[in-house]
Amino acid sequence: MTEEKTQGDEKEPGADSAAKAEEGSGNDGAPEAAASGAEELAEARKALAERTADLQRLQAEYQNYRKRVERDRVTVREIAVAALLENLLPVLDDIGRAREHEELTGGFKSVGESLETVVSKLGLQQFGKQGEPFDPQLHEALMHSYSSDVTETTCVQILQPGYKIGERIIRPARVAVAEPEPGGSGEAEGGSTEAESAGAKGDGGDED
To answer: Residue 98 class from Cβ within 10 Å (0-12 exposed, 13-18 middle, 19+ buried)?
Structure first.
């Protein structure tokens, strides 16, 4: 009896070691699972950042596309309106000349003012004033002269006003320009210097 009980209480060799190994392997799996989850989270965040960047880039491209389409639409409209109004410039010139000669009266006055209102609403702007500096981008010089009354090339007469839509010039202002008289300032300075020299000599003669 005693031998059987002793034999039953005896454990197989290595049983404790196997159990401890199983417990150890179970504990080692937890850190590996945590590390794997952290890697997956990092990859998910990276993918999210990439998709967000792609979305922002697409949105910026779409905004640029809309701006380009709007700009092209405005340009096409300006070209079409400019082509139409260019044909009306001779009529507007006639209306302007009639007004200068006080002949814009009666029904002709009403029609002329109505036409000017319509073209103004379409964006047509008149420019060119007497006395303003000559600008080759805005003015076309048809007459040229010299004058002592100007210090730079100046529009002294507006022969035909200019017209533009926005920044698009339909017709430059046709003007008569005057430039400062050549050598005028130099001669004046020379005369002043000679007068001062003569005065100095005169003063010296009086002292003698």
So the answer is: middle
